[in-house]
Amino acid sequence: MTLGAVARAVGLGMTSIYNYFTDFTELLLAVLEPVMGSAKEEYFSLAREYWPDEQLNARAMDFVRAYHAFWARHTGLLHLRNSLADQFDVRIMHQRVNSTRPLIGLFVAQMDQRGVLGDTAVLMATTLMTGIERSITLATDRRLRRILGTLPGRREESLLEINARLMELAIRDTRERAAAEVAERP
């Protein structure tokens, strides 16, 4: 995709496009802004409230389903973003990281409410979200589905269940570490 292709698709000349955007990255960032803004209500909101231990699996599953639905709905745009970030487009890399950073913060709060583990909880939440994003990215990649064959509904649901279980285990384990850390203090 190029800025010229976008100009042709919307029936504008390149001069008109350049009145609004200096390059393709700037256009993509403008398109991403409202989409990523909607993420706050679509799945961020599910992680804001503390998840009680007895509800961890159900809450994680709700989150993973909402995250997957968001990716499925915006798959072309999000895959393009990740592709450009992987090609070291610095502005897109910043957008990708900055859009995920608040979510990682919410999971740090789920894992370590008292903040006793510091970087350990941050690293756990970062690793967790990186893994979930990667598996959801693969599950929603239409090109990969064409190459490998589509994931039947049950296999896709199993992937979501596995992600939710990993999330549950990561949160539970980190909570236990935080509690042990507090218990060991004089």
CATH class value:
Mainly Alpha
Name the poorly predicted regions: none
The percentage of residues in β strands lies in under 5%
- The ordered H/E elements are HHHHHHHHH
User: Pairing-aware structural class of the strands and helices?
Assistant: mainly alpha
Characterize the biggest β-sheet.
Answer: none
Q: How many individual β-strands?
A: 0
Q: Can you give the mean pLDDT? A: 92
Q: CATH topology, which one?
A: Tetracycline Repressor, domain 2
- Based on CA atoms alone, the radius of gyration comes out at 19 Å
Give the end-to-end Cα distance, rounded to a whole number of Å.
Answer: 60 Å
- Total helix count? 9
Folded structure, characterized:
The chain is mainly alpha-helical and 186 residues long. The protein has a single domain, classed as Tetracycline Repressor, domain 2 (Orthogonal Bundle), CATH 1.10.357. Helix content is 82%, strand content 0%. The protein has helices spanning 3-10, 14-20, 24-48, 56-73, 75-86, 90-111, 119-140, 142-148, 153-184. Helix 3 (24-48) runs antiparallel to helix 4 (56-73), helix 4 (56-73) packs across helix 7 and helix 4 (56-73) crosses helix 9. It is elongated and about 70 Å long. The N and C termini lie far apart (60 Å). The mean pLDDT is 92.
